[in-house]
Design brief:
mainly alpha, 2 strands, 70% helix, globular
């Protein structure tokens, strides 16, 4: 007896391989970064809040790769520049946020995602590869952020270290390890 229901399944991985699927995934990635931007804690000794954005940027780079990760984070910056509420709530928003204390970090995001994605793929996507790629990308992020603080506030290198790098190092280590672990788990089981 023939079944009356059609038992064909939809393969979501084939949709993600299409151009439309990749665009949807890239904009979903901007949503992840925006959500992580809203998980923010202001710190009294620095104009830069502690957020989860760098974790999301690494994850986007690892999962989408260098090119799609770069363009996804470029789209994120464009969303914020036109005034969408995607940046941390501890800033002015829009273009002003890109020119403010967090501007160096924000403007580095596309390159950070590209470096993370490139190195993770080049090093064969092991946990150690993700951790090394995340560390290199995070060092770039912190250098860009501290460099911007030096320009914006005329900080010395020591003051930029205190305000833009040192307070974030313990959290960045945790974020790198978490992004590496999640990425390795997803890569091992790509249908999840």
């Amino acid at each position: 007896m023939q079944s009356l229901t059609n038992t064909t399944s939809i393969d979501s991985s084939s949709f993600l391989k299409t151009r439309a699927g990749r665009v949807v995934l890239a904009f979903a990635a901007t949503g992840l970064v925006a959500a992580c931007a809203h998980i923010a804690v202001p710190l009294p000794f620095t104009p830069v809040p502690l957020t989860m954005q760098s974790f999301a940027v690494l994850l986007v780079g690892f999962m989408l790769g260098p090119v799609a990760g770069f363009f996804s984070l470029l789209a994120y910056l464009a969303e914020g520049a036109i005034g969408l509420p995607v940046f941390s709530l501890h800033g002015l928003g829009g273009i002003a946020q890109l020119m403010g204390p967090t501007g160096g970090y924000l403007l580095a995001y596309p390159l950070v995602a590209a470096v993370a994605g490139f190195l993770a793929r080049a090093l064969r996507r092991t946990y150690v590869a993700y951790a090394v790629a995340g560390t290199a990308a995070t060092l770039l992020l912190l250098a860009a952020g501290a460099g911007w603080l030096m320009v914006l506030f005329h900080f010395s290198s020591h003051a930029a270290w205190i305000a833009g790098i040192a307070p974030f190092l313990p959290g960045e280590i945790v974020k790198i390890c978490a992004a590496a672990g999640i990425s390795k788990a997803i890569y091992r089981h790509p249908t999840l």
